Records
---
Amino acid sequence: MTEAKIACRNLWKLYGSDPAGFLRRHGGNPSIDTIRAEGYVPAVRDVSFEVMPGEILVVMGLSGSGKSTLLRCLARLIEPTAGEVMFEGSDILAASERELIDLRRHKMGMVFQHFALLPHRTVLDNVAFPLQVRGTDRQKRELRAREVIELVGLKGREGYYPRELSGGQQQRVGIARSLAVGPDVWFLDEPFSALDPLIRREMQDEFLRLQRVLNKTIVFITHDFDEAIRVADRIAIMKDGVVEQLGTAEELITCPATPYVAEFTRNVSHDRLLSVRAFMAPASSRKPDAAAIQAQALLASVARQVLTSERPVDVVDDAGALVGTLSRDSLIDALYGKEEHA
Amino acid sequence: MSAATLTRHEEIEPQRQLASVTKPLLVVLPFVVLLLAASLLPDWAVQVPKGWTIPFVDWANTVIEHLRDDAIFGLFSFRDLTRAIAEMITLPLAFVEGLLVAGFPNIGVAAMPWVMTAGLSGVLGWYLRDWRLGALAAGCVAYMAIFGKWELSMITLSVVLVAAPIAGLIGFGIGILAVKKQWFEALIVPFLNVLQSLPHFSYLIPIAVFIGVGHKAGAIATVIFAIPPMARLTILGLNGVAEEVREAGKMAGCTRFQTLWMVEIPSARQPLLVGVNQVIMQCLAMVVIASFVGARGLGHDLLFRLQALKIGQALESGVAIVLMAITLDQLSRAAAHKEPAHVSSDATLLQRFPFLAASVAVIAASLLLATATPIAQAWPSELTLSTAPFWDALVDWVTVTLYDPLQHLRNAMLLYVLIPVRDLFQSIPWIAMVALVAAAGWSLGGLRLALTVSGLVLFIAFAGYWERSLITAYMVAVAVLICIAIGLPIGIWASHSERRTGIAKLLCDTFQTFPSFIYLIPVIMLFKVGDVAAISAIIIYAMIPIVRYTIFGLRNVPSEIVEAGITSGCTRRQLLWNIRMPLAFPEIMLGINQTIMFALFMVIIAAFIGTKDIGQEIFRALTFNDAGKGLVLGLCVAFMGLTADQLITAWAAKRKQRLGLAS
Ligand SMILES: Nc1ncnc2c1ncn2[C@@H]1O[C@H](COP(=O)(O)OP(=O)(O)OP(=O)(O)O)[C@@H](O)[C@H]1O
Ligand SMILES: [Mg+2]
């Protein structure tokens, strides 16, 4: 098995006067009520997960649920109160300042929620900044910066200052800057939320295209479930600092672990997300129909066929063996939820 | 959540209402009792007994003498060291002075022609903002040349141009260290607080002892005086850099040094440049006052004419100083507000470097002009204009027509206001004062604040200058009350419309740039010398902050709250007194705090026109070179200011929090 790129175990971050002492006094696992009662702010509580190389993990949650804080702990921009963070198998919390700087110069990139551009530098200089910091000579770094600026669609604005750009444009500068050094691991804190819907869509497509080529390991924060579904391999839902559930979009929708997760995923259009497999009924082993459908096909792509068929349609796996059947009723239930009886 | 807090609010409301009545009562009660019972108290409780004086002055002098005379570094004394350091300023000073006015006779190079100075100032103004600022700057320089203030003003300008960068760099360094090292910040911030509330003269006395008197000493005093504001604004600016921007630097892999140099300092550019503006203005204010230890230039000229009671000529020098102040302020302010903007990629060299190009053009043109006509090199003295006759006529007119009404006003002020208030202040038993301050501190900030402020007051009591301090306190109190009575209505009036606010702000900004010493000229003209003149000077000077803060407070009341008031049918008057005033009140209190600080600064300078308070003692200490006494007296003044400051800031913070305005 390959090694996880990033892993955290029992990660805690509390804000308050003496968070470490408080955590120790309560055996390392205080309840949320205790935390609040003693005046601490729970930002991240007991979070553990792994992100595999090339995987996109999306973190979602309401405002203040601790998403940004979690990301900062992973990049060690802030010190966690307790817990472990591993980066490519080595403990990042034990890294020296020198090692951290090296790591950030070569392996990590980050896009910030509020852009965090340097106000005194032009777009070009902002994007070239990480290269300049690691000592790349001017000509090389400007060449590279122009490349990524073109990639994010800001060609022609190289000489502008951040305050001369719109919010969306500034965010794209932030994205370009984080791409300039070609990091393995990419932390994205609501990278597209400042963009208007059209550009957002375009940037998501561009992002996915890039990802197919570059195959980075990505932790991606968003508020937008549709966006999460488009980009995510797996999604973590956070509430009050805790990861309530972590799984594929399908898992979150079909079997939500808590009412909060169910609430979160309620308004998602299911047909473009759910596959036949989750809703088929078992079938006895026989030779499948000629018009059988694939188990991993999305509901939307088979809806017409199933809904116009008089009897349940056969479902087959990759090898063509029968694995179940899908009836018109279960498809309707899947799309619109089970009818509720008074 | 808000519902929960609301109900909790209501539960404690009756209790709080009770407390809001009894608490102030408890604070003033001991004071009132002690004041009324003053005649029953034993003598030691009313007047600080002579024998109780702690010899702070002697201690300070012992230390100073040791530093001055004993060779603590083996071969040389501390004074030798300070003098050696002071020597280092002579070279840049001579260079800038040579450039601007004196020339370099030993290598046969003349000073810049005045048209070049004017032209370059104009280009600078134009580059930093627009052609109007350029015209102001060039016009100001031309005024100096044409009206016969050239040498004096250029000497003053040289001191500012040398002292400001030095003070700025030192303050900047201190600020950076404070931001990076916690222990240093804990050490330096209280020290800066005290330094910033020390009166100007207190800086001059140690300078006179350790460096001597003369132009150079004045320049050093100017440098030292301007360091604290820069340090403060550096700390403020660097702490104000958004955490996310700092993190962006870290994520790019910046080392600590790169973070500081490439991320934090450039991002804090604006507050830092505001700091530079402060430094320049402080330098100008100080270089005027440093004429007391022998700094040359406009300040010296002004001092000399005031001492000779040549008011008309003093006004002429005053106008030159004011012009210079306005120009320097406008230029440095424009620099702070100038934002970088992109240049189109097909710009010519001229468009890329407009400042450089224009400067080169000006230098070339003025060199040509200077060879063509000597008038462009130095304005000939026979063509010099003077405004002194005009000012003299004005002074004569004032003296003739306003003599009687002014005399009456002055006598009435003395008889009905100043003398009764002074007697009242002098009858306050010192323990009553300590009790009042301690009780106020305790109710506003608990034991810690109570101990701090009563410690400050006890220092003043036992330093041996209690009576003098009371006179200072009385003058400040009267002046501040009058400032409030006049400044508050002006502020309210000015806050009514955008246009009025603009006018008032412009006036405040302009008046605030004037070196404090300037304010003595008109009051001497009107009231000659004495308490009335002194208090008038304080009132004019200290009015600025109360007006400014009142406007700020009233205009920054959240607009939804005002709108809520309008929709519930408030009249304009109700709106003002029930909504805007209460919400603006904490801000107004901070304005009063500043007014007190300004008043304390001015009351000391007013010693020049014959007061009998602590300022007069400081003045005397200056003439006798009594550094220990000067220092202790300066601390007394600073501690008065800090006592008021601590109490008012604590109160305003508490009040703001309760109103939900805390930022
Ligand atoms: N420096 C800090 N000091 C105190 N509390 C903090 C600090 N930073 C974050 N918090 C608190 O931690 C909690 C989580 O904050 P965080 O910024 O991680 O939320 P978020 O999920 O990113 O929210 P958003 O979607 O609004 O960006 C919040 O309650 C916040 O108030
Ligand atoms: Mg966030």
---
Amino acid sequence: MCLAIPGQVAEIVDPATHIAKVDVGGVKRNVNIGLLVEEPGGIDVGDWVLIHVGFALSKVDEAEAAATLSLLRGMGEAFEDELEQLKASDIG
Amino acid sequence: MKYVDEYRDAELARTLGSEITALAEPGRHYKVMEVCGGHTHTIYKHGIEDHLPESVELVHGPGCPVCVIPMGRVDDGISIARQPNVIFTCFGDMMRVPGGNGSLLDVKAEGADVRFVYSPLDALKIARNNPDKEVVFFAIGFETTAPSTALTLMRAKAEKLRNFSVMCNHVTIVPPLMALLESPDLRLDAFIGPGHVSTVIGCRPYEFIPADYGQPVVVAGFEPLDLLQSIYMIMRQLAEGRNEVENQYGRVVPWEGNLRALDILQRVFELRPYFEWRGLGFISQSALKLSQEYADFDAELRWDIPGVRVADPKACQCGEVLKGVIKPWECKVFGTACTPETPIGTCMVSSEGACAAYYNFGRFARSKERAGA
Ligand code: SF4
């Protein structure tokens, strides 16, 4: 649960409840972007974010997202577990 | 392409390693605490210590949210999970944490409806879909995770979901650091500050460490090179006689933190007067509970919980491990009675726990050798 995994915002699903669909290495799931709506420039389709327990925690650039993803892939099991849990998640 | 990157990284790591060595004063021993369990994981996974001179010792800190949950709180959670009509939800890591009398996984095996969830919002959805059940979320985590629980509670309140409640075990990072700095058992030289927690709280809350204790703090990212660079920044401060909070992870951590998240925390939670930490004992103002405004969603008010303090098993030395006083392999049951499959203490449960990190990556052999054991 301590991981923060990078994903790219694919769609703003519901602006009222701050739900967005993000793409995490091909897996698309809903997350909450409510913590980032006051970021400079807001948050929009195409942005990269770090996701922690179903919430986007910070906005990052593409290079940072790529570096984080390769670090996580190297973690093996811990990352696989986190991805499996994300896949099972059904936030709405 | 990947090969080139790896090669470049190895070169950089070597360079940083020799610069750190050059900064180390002969005859001086340096103890640097990495506060965050995520850092502990990187350190052992990537053999960071192999790049450091013998005189620079990394000490693991208390920043693993699963590790610090005391037995009594697990028992309190279990007592709710056993109530009829309850669906009890928690993060997967929490399931195997031993309480005084078994874990949530054991209670599940006995027939209680215990489910692990990826997000508190998944727990909320379960509540929505099961209006005739009571759904409880066992919340754990530092300031990284607490805003997620807070936003979930705000949503529950907006939806007037009456069958959802939270048993709050959120903790705050600064009070245990203060307790460690005051502890006579341990003399540290500097801190590697946690990365994700700091995205929420920013860097200012650490300023008391240089100001009052004269020790540098460098907030660090999670890649091997981030850690080496942070240690280099610490060694430079020490060599130049500076004590400051520096931010190595500026690409993710804003100096002021996430003001919106901090505001949300203020609204939904209040500080508990004190909270028990596994192995560290009671620390004042070190944890959060639901504020008055959210009292209707507080599982501790909805159910009678035993709320008793349960002493850690005699063999367990997690407290010393969490304080960095002993290395995981120095615990008598490490790797024998206590393994990730049958954990006695919490540090062996989560992959961020220092004992699990040592166990999984087998680096303890080297540290043992260095300590001359
Ligand atoms: S080996 Fe087990 S009991 Fe000993 S400190 Fe580590 S987790 Fe705790």
